[in-house]
Amino acid sequence: MRLALMESPRPIDGRQSPTARAVARGTARLLHSLGLSSVAELSLASGRRADLVALSADSELWIIEIKSSIEDFRADGKWPDYRLCCDRLFFATALDVPLAIFPEDAGLILADAFGASIVREAPEHRLSPATRRSMLLRFAHTAACRLQALADPGGGWLE
After folding, report:
1. What is the spatial distance between Cα 159 and Cα 145, in angstroms, rounded to a whole number?
2. pTM (2 decimals)?
């Protein structure tokens, strides 16, 4: 059990397809290379969960919505609400998904399990100070609980 936790500190709840998990992994690697820290499956104040939330050194927040197929994109209408919780909104997708389906007013990342690249930058829409503070606290609390859960798997630390 310990090895499984060390291999994947990101939550796997069984709803993500293998393609979505690969896109998340490659995208997280890209974010790290850009100097951003990321948390997967971050619960938002609305009760929705963002696939990836990234935080820069200057407190800029990105949300990355992962779409593994055309069907996945068409079935999900919640992503416009994510704009209220980030400075930049991106979609991340796999190599075989047509890029034309994604809205022009969001950034676009193309990824596989080993890396990713930004195909289109996301427009900036700055958060209010109160929303930024709330998101920063949510990000920090979730990250700290998950780190503690790796050190003490039986401690009930997950948020």
Report:
1. 6
2. 0.88
